[in-house]
C-alpha cells in the first residue's frame, strides 16, 4: 500500500526523480516524478534528501518549476520532504498530473502553487500505513501507532488547507480510501484545472501497475474502479491487463512479462524480501561452516596458512584440504630424500656394514614415516 512508512531497507543512491532545465525557455525547469516515491532511498538517510535539495538549488534563478507527477504513492516522509522543499522555493511550482496521483503523491501535489490534472487521470487519498517485518513488543508497536497518528494529523491539516474542507470531512474521506476522477478531485478542491493530454499506457504485470516499464507503486487490485472497468477492453493509452481471461497462458504464468529486478520487486515485494533474507542467512551459515571446517583440519604449525585460507585469500574447505595434503606430501618427500642421503653417507664407513641403523623412534612415529613414504611414492 502506498502512503506508508517502512523500516529501513538500506541505502540506494539512485534517485527516483529527475530535474530538467528548459533550454528553449530560460527561467523554467521540469521535475519528473514518475513511479513509486521510494522509501529505500530516503528513510533514515540524510544523503538523499540533501541531494534533492542540492539539485533543486542548482537550478538557479528559475521562476517556474513544472512537476510532472504520475505516481501511485510511496514513502510519506519522502513525499513530505519533497513537498516542503518545493513550497520553500521562490519559483512558481505547478503540478501536472497524468495517469494517477494517489496516496503519498498527493502530499507533493498539495504543496504546489497550482495543480492541473489530465481529464482521464485519477486522484486518491487514504490513511497512512506501516509495513513491519520481524518481532515487536507492546512499546514498539505503540510507538508506530503514535507515529501513524501524527502523520494522519499532518495530512489532514494539509488536505484541509488545500481543499477548504473541515478536519472531520477529510478524516471521513481518508477512512474510506477515496478515489476521484480528475473532475471530482477538482470539485473537492484538490485540483485547480482539467487539461487534455495524451494518456500514458498502463500495464498490469504480475499484479503490479507499470507505465513505460516504471512501477507506479500501486497494485492492480487497489486500482480505482474506473481503471478496473477498462481491464477487459484495453485501448491505446489505456490499461493493458496482461492477466485477463482472454490469455490463459499469461493468467497461469503472471511472471511472464516481468523482465527486470525492479518489476519483480514492485510485483512481489514481500517475496523478494524473503528471498534476500534466506540468501543472506544461507551465505552466513555457509561461511561459518567453511571457517569451522578449516580450523578442524589445521595441524600444529599450520596456523598461518589456515589464517590466510580463512580470511586473507579465502578458499573453500575442500581446496584447503587439497592444498594441505599436497604440502604434506611435498614435505614428506623432502624428509625421506634427506634420510636416504644420510644413509648413503654411512655406506663404506668401517663398522657400519650390516649394522641396522639405530633409532629412538616409537612405533607410532615409524608408522607415520611409512605413511609419508607411501604418500611420496617411496618403497623400501
Task: Explain this structure.
- The chain is of the alpha/beta class and 380 residues long.
- It folds into two domains: 4-200, 2-enoyl-CoA Hydratase, Chain A, domain 1; 275-347 and 361-376, no CATH class.
- Helix content is 45%, strand content 18%.
- The chain has 13 helices and 14 strands.
- The protein has helices at residues 47-58, 76-88, 105-110, 138-163, 167-175, 182-187, 225-228, 248-252, 261-267, 269-297, 303-312, 317-346, 363-376; strands at residues 4-6, 18-21, 28-34, 64-71, 92-102, 114-118, 122-125, 129-131, 178-181, 193-195, 202-205, 208-211, 214-219, 239-241.
- Strands 2, 3, 4, 5, 6, 7, 9 and 10 form an eight-stranded mixed β-sheet that branches.
- Helix 1 (47-58) links the parallel strand 3 and strand 4.
- Helix 1 (47-58) runs parallel beside helix 2 (76-88).
Question: Number of helix segments?
Answer: 13
**CATH topology grouping of the largest domain:** 2-enoyl-CoA Hydratase, Chain A, domain 1
Summarize the amount of helix as a percent range: 40-55%
Shape summary:
elongated
CATH A-level architecture of the largest domain: Alpha-Beta Complex
Biggest sheet architecture: 8 strands, mixed
CATH superfamily assignment of the largest domain? Answer: 2-enoyl-CoA Hydratase, Chain A, domain 1
Amino acid at each position: 500500500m502506498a502512503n506508508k512508512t517502512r523500516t529501513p531497507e538500506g541505502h540506494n543512491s539512485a534517485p527516483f526523480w529527475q530535474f530538467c532545465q528548459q533550454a528553449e525557455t530560460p527561467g523554467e525547469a521540469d521535475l519528473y516524478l514518475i513511479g513509486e516515491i521510494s522509501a529505500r532511498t530516503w528513510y533514515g538517510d540524510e544523503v538523499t534528501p540533501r541531494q534533492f535539495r542540492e539539485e533543486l538549488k542548482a537550478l538557479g534563478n528559475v521562476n517556474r518549476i513544472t512537476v510532472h507527477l504520475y505516481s501511485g504513492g510511496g514513502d510519506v516522509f519522502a513525499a513530505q520532504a519533497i513537498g516542503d522543499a518545493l513550497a520553500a522555493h521562490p519559483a512558481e511550482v505547478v503540478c501536472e498530473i497524468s495517469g494517477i496521483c494517489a496516496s503519498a503523491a498527493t502530499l507533493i501535489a498539495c504543496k504546489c502553487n497550482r495543480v492541473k490534472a489530465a481529464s482521464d487521470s485519477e486522484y486518491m487519498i487514504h490513511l497512512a500505513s506501516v509495513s513491519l517485518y520481524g518481532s515487536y513488543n507492546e512499546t514498539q508497536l505503540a510507538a508506530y501507532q503514535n507515529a501513524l497518528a501524527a502523520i494522519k494529523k499532518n495530512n489532514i491539516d494539509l488536505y484541509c488547507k488545500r481543499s477548504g474542507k473541515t478536519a472531520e470531512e477529510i478524516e471521513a474521506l481518508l477512512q474510506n480510501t477515496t478515489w476521484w476522477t480528475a473532475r471530482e478531485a477538482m470539485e473537492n478542491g484538490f485540483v485547480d484545472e482539467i487539461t487534455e493530454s495524451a494518456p500514458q499506457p498502463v500495464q498490469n504485470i504480475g499484479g503490479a501497475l507499470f507505465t513505460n516499464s516504471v512501477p507506479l507503486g500501486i497494485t492492480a487490485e487497489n486500482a480505482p474502479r474506473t481503471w478496473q472497468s477498462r481491464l477487459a477492453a484495453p485501448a491505446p493509452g489505456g490499461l493493458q491487463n496482461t492477466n485477463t481471461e482472454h490469455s490463459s497462458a499469461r493468467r497461469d504464468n503472471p511472471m511472464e512479462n516481468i523482465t527486470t529486478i525492479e518489476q519483480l520487486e514492485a510485483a512481489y515485494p514481500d517475496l523478494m524480501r524473503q528471498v534476500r533474507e534466506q540468501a543472506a542467512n544461507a551465505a552466513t551459515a555457509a561461511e561459518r561452516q567453511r571457517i569451522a571446517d578449516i580450523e578442524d583440519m589445521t595441524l600444529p604449525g599450520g596456523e598461518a596458512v589456515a589464517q590466510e585460507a580463512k580470511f586473507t585469500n579465502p578458499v573453500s574447505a575442500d581446496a584447503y584440504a587439497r592444498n594441505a595434503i599436497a604440502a604434506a606430501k611435498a614435505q614428506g618427500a623432502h624428509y625421506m630424500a634427506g634420510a636416504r642421503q644420510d644413509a648413503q653417507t654411512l655406506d663404506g664407513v668401517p663398522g657400519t656394514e650390516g649394522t641396522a641403523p639405530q633409532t629412538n623412534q616409537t612405533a607410532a612415529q615409524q608408522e607415520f614415516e611409512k605413511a609419508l613414504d607411501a604418500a611420496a611414492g617411496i618403497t623400501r
